[in-house]
Amino acid sequence: MNRHAVTGALLFDGTTDPPRPEHTVVWEGNRISWVGPDAEAPLDGTVVVEAKGDALLPGLIDAHVHLCLEPTIDGVDGVAEDPIERVMARSIDNAARLLAAGITTARDQGSRDGVAVRVAGAQRNGEIVAARIMAAGRGITPTGGHGWMLGVEADGPEAVRAAVAAEVARGAEIIKLFPTGGVLGSGSHGFDVVMTAAELEAAVEEAHRLGVLVGAHIHGPEGIEMALEAGIDTIEHATGITAAQARRAAAQGVALVPTLTGIDVLQDRADLLPPDLLVRALAVGAAQAEGIRIAIAEGARVLAGTDSGTPFNPPGLLPREMRLLAGLGMGNAGAIAAATSLVADTLRMQDRGVVRVGAIADLLLVDGDPLADLTALERPRMVVQDGAAR
Ligand SMILES: [Zn+2]
Fold this sequence. Notes:
Blueprint: E1 3-11, E2 20-28, E3 31-37, E4 46-50, E5 54-58, E6 60-65, H1 75-78, H2 84-100, E7 103-108, H3 115-124, E8 132-135, E9 139-141, E10 151-153, H4 157-169, E11 174-177, H5 197-209, E12 213-219, H6 221-230, E13 234-239, H7 243-252, E14 255-257, H8 260-268, H9 275-297, E15 301-302, H10 318-338, H11 341-346, E16 363-367, E17 380-385, E18 388-389
Parallel strand pairs: 1-4, 1-5, 6-7, 7-8, 9-10, 11-12, 12-13, 13-14, 14-15
Antiparallel strand pairs: 1-2, 2-3, 5-16, 16-17, 17-18
Helix pairs in contact: 4-5, 5-6, 6-7, 7-9, 8-9, 9-10
Bound molecules: zinc ion.
Zinc ion (ZN) binds next to loops.
């Protein structure tokens, strides 16, 4: 079996532990087989990449993407009108772009007709070179609800329960719900809660019975309260979360995925936005920053996810999300864990997101020290996925 190694690197293992200089990582096939100081590295018969001055990390994991969307102002509604072949081709292309940016795994949080499930399968079977995808399939939303273009509509606890079972049967590895309105697209409904407590409970119960986790798109404390009560596993956006809710999320082991990038990029392009969208984006951005700063201080688990596919938010902006999280109190070390080991642990993928013997050889080599400056992550020198340089 081929042995490969990176040597001389500043090694980040995916936790918040300090990085270790002059370290070597060896892998055989798709698994890491040795980690330690350069001086002790067993390099006989090994293909070696010299990496002095570079940092080596686990491949990054984006906890929230939409492969099927074109990142334009009209892309969210537009996906409903596109020929499905075009949606599929774009989804494959976006998954490949993620990998090129050093994101070796991503969780898709809703795709039209569940195309992301098929992208996930194609990657798994080696038919495409792309980020590994954990796909939610179609998100579940009430009739006319937010996210309908990425979803399936269901009303009432029994219909929601059946929709969960149907998505899992179609290959979804996680369930996505839209219990509140949102920012983008028709049917956005602001922060209104549009699913009932009984619907949420039915969805969570059925998903957990089938062995899959549930993520819920939520803006506003009212929706967050319902989701915590129902036993949701991840809260996406988490706009306006209160200190008490953050403490409860921490106690219940619920992870928050704020996707600050989606709003941050809109604020950058304020001159191009319809006025009503700009007003919504500014309100959500302010409420998210305040809530997530509190959540980090309260010890809630906060993960890095970009919501890529939304307007001006192409695949690969995860380092930007990490900078935003770092700035809200997480710090650079915390942000690195939030885009590696913490996502993997939350999504029950403990054999990645870490650099240790036995883990999958998903590695990212970058130019510079991300602990000092997270923009180093925007300069990938080499991406290794499943042991293969990509
Ligand atoms: Zn999303």
